[in-house]
Amino acid sequence: MTKELYKLWCEKATGDPDLVKELKEMEKDDKLISDAFYKNLEFGTGGLRGVIGAGTNRMNIYTVGQASQGLAEYVNSVTDDGKIAIAYDSRIKSDLFAKISACIFAANGIKVYIYKELMPTPMLSYAVRRLKCDAGIVVTASHNPSKYNGYKAYGADGTQLGPDEANKVLAIMQKTDMFGGVKTEDFDLCLKSGKIEYIGDEIINDYLACVEAQRIETEADLSGLKVIYTPLHGSGNKPVRAILKKIGITDVTVVPEQELPDGNFPTAPYPNPEIRQAFECALKLAKDKQPDLLLATDPDCDRVGIAINTGDDYRLFTGNEVGALLLNYILERRAANNTLPEKPIAVKTIVTTELCRKITEAHECKLIDVLTGFKFIGEQISLLEERGEENRYIFGFEESYGYLAGSYVRDKDAVVASMLICEMTAYYKNSGKTLCNVLEEINNKYGFFRDTQISFTCEGMTGMEKIKGIMDSLRNTPPKDIDGSPIIKINDYEKSVSYDIKNGSHTALTLPVSNVLSFFAEDGCSLIVRPSGTEPKIKVYVGAVGATAREADAKKQSITEYGTKLLGF
What is the set of domains in the chain, with CATH numbers? Predict the structure, then answer.
């Protein structure tokens, strides 16, 4: 089967010279052919994501074209006057995939709005809502290495497609011949005719105004803050610098070798603000500049990571720590300023630190748990909007460095997060504190929570089978303890059941079906296991709780080792 598909592609896939060359080079390599053609690149709620190259299991103009034809036909099935917005980042072929998609949408009778240059993912969500589009796409693979690209699809509310919508698009795709069944027109001709229209500066300015409106301490003097910022060769460079300038932070040094767009990411092979390697260039620059804060956004600028000057070094903060700090800051300062709404609501994912629960309880703020994926946080905002209560939403975040304040978009936004992190850092600096001091205060007040994530890459067909085997084994023969502490509850989100081990009873879970298993121990610690929805990985989330910092740190390390062995790595 793979050989037949390979031969078909050699005959038909002539629209991109890079593909022609690659197909010729893999001619005598059965393993390469198998990996490229053994399955179709999966389209789900995360859209498409995969290695760039030739084959049905790769990101290329044909797999992207098939997805765009599927999305176009889906939009045409629900409206007679469809509109779709498009954004893209700095990745290899992102602009090509974006323009090809625009041509396909236009050929299907859909009005297309596309940004003139690379823009952050949240600005796509904003454009969909602001221009009243029926759908949107952003071409990005977020923080993956350079060999990857992706295609995120959004609904009319500005959130990523839900399972039902994604399945409808997939059903159309499966019936579409990617070589003969995809409609297209010329991009420049579509621009002249108005079928495709560039998104103007007014939309960008309106977006930045919405971001600025999320400020907490609007009168605070922020001019004394020193920042080093790196966009990691991505789309955050212009909007992040623009918003910091708007709020009065002018001492911003951009890492020069990472300032300009470059999909090869020559200085950051893993352009992920979750890891120290992404900060290496900024850390070298910091030796002379001695800033208060290092700030890094990923290539599509929906995630942000930070490091704080401790005097001797720079301490990298986890996504859980930054999220807890922002949540605490927003609740405390808005309460002090009398801008906190009645019955405020915060939202987190099930794999995000339980420290948030302590913080929200102290401020009489409702905390909603959702499945992993920011679209579920976006859905909660949309539900509030339907009831005219979106002002109750104050903050949402996930442990993987994604944050959102405000309801102007429905996805994580590193632009607003960068602004609030800088404001928060400056506010505490003016009070004689660093974020390290504030986090210590929070721990002393609410308890010592230590959270971490470990992930294991399992690529190709064998990797996919291994991940399935691990999940089946854990589901059919669950562990009895977490590092010696008896397990008292198991949540199986695929079966939508919560098992009370102590009482031998079970209750239904109300969240959507998802291949996730959560194990909770008697001592308050936890393990959550899930396959990634966007990468060939299986992830384990460790939650440790201790009476002291030392105890919590020791538990985190011990449970991490336990979880690694449990999965067989």
Answer: 2-207 (3.40.120.10), 224-446 (3.40.120.10), 448-566 (3.30.310.50)
